[in-house]
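We recall that each integer encodes one residue's backbone shape. We quote one record:
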Amino acid sequence: MNISLFVEKYDHGIAFYINGDLQFDSADEAIYHEHLVIPALGLAKQRFPNTQLKVLICGGGDGLAARDVLRFSEVEKIDLVDYSPEVLELANTAFKPYNLGSLENEKVNVYAQEAFAFVKELADHSYHVIICDFTCPKSATEANIYSQEWFQAVNRVLIPTGVVAVNGVSPDYDTSAFWCLYQTLLSVNFSTKPLQIKIPSFYDHDYGDWGFFLCSDVKITREEIETLEIPDNLKYLNQDNLKRVFQIHQKIAAYRHQVTIHTVENQQLFYYLLNYPGNQKSTDSIDLEINHHEYLDFLDIDETVNYQNENINSFNLESVAKFWLENIYATPETEKELPDMQRLVPVRHPYHEPKMTTSWLHHLQNLLSELDAKQLINSLLARAQELPPQIARELKILADKIKSNQPLEKLNPKMVEFMTLLSITMLMANLVAPDSVFAKGSYYRGSSTNTSSSSSGSGIDIGWKGFGFMLTIFGGVWLYSIINRLPDND
């Protein structure tokens, strides 16, 4: 896994970036790490009196979470697993003045490997506290360590009544993703309390407020939180502000029942991060809980899993195509029954932003009208030998009808579906790989040895056009196989 690490040094401090994303600024990193670590360790100390605590830190290769775990003399052993040897090396060099040499402490065992594989090999009921200090996922694969399967594995190695702390995402900037994590934790029978805090350096980088989750396999009560023993010499956390961080604004909390959970097979968390940054949905469409307070205090809320069923895998084109088919003939009585069009796009190209896709979907009819159906059908017929015979026959009938301006009402419904999905496939593919589908050419410019072919455009254009056309052909055949597996419409 290739990562880019950058340490910015400034007067009296440093800031650390992974792939351009701020991980911590020494000026205020204690806000993050104290809220992630201290409530979990304080609760475990309270629940396991006179016990030598065993702690697992997943991620946290910078050593800052381990530093705060070591504030508790009751901790006997810390196992820390992080996949990046480079980050672990920085922990013992550039970060050492800030983590106080935590990874060199005799209580700490460091493992440079992937956390999921590490946990799979552990015995049941191995740790009193498990801290998940991962970076925000930038791919579907990276999001596996936020999945239901991951938290099931965490629950397995947790000693009964133990405590889990999880780094989340921004509740106000990535609201759907935040509550997706919440519901995923609930789905593995964790009593889960969300926290929301403001970290100035994160806010300055436009990350919004930040979120965490405090979890256990038994109920976490207000009395436990209010009687936690908090270590001395902390920079930010105290009993007064600890109680406040469990209070979340109603407009944000209202989304927690509007999401579905994240699994390895259905990567909803990553989908929400791509498609729903911020409160894009209107809170007017959500039934807000009516009371006299602007905030919900989750110390008074003990919920079980409560999420919407997801009928499609938003990253699987076949699943999305079936969803399109199911809605071709749908006649909703009200506008509220219309499907969320954002969910009909499986993934976007990295340089597309959510507003671009939303705007694109709102103009879907106009975009489809720009496709020259006659030319498209003739192009397909020119390669009829590459198509299934039945599709070739139907395309010939369709071409004759279009040529003679005949009405299309009696056309085979499956051919209508085929043409609709073929157009949709092209339009979706334009979001994912626009250069391939519409033969615009690569935006990457090669070395000077390719200058002549680039200037003429012939070699590159032919290659991309051929690839784009073949992508369309294969997409059409694939869609036809989907249609054949569906029951006939009446």
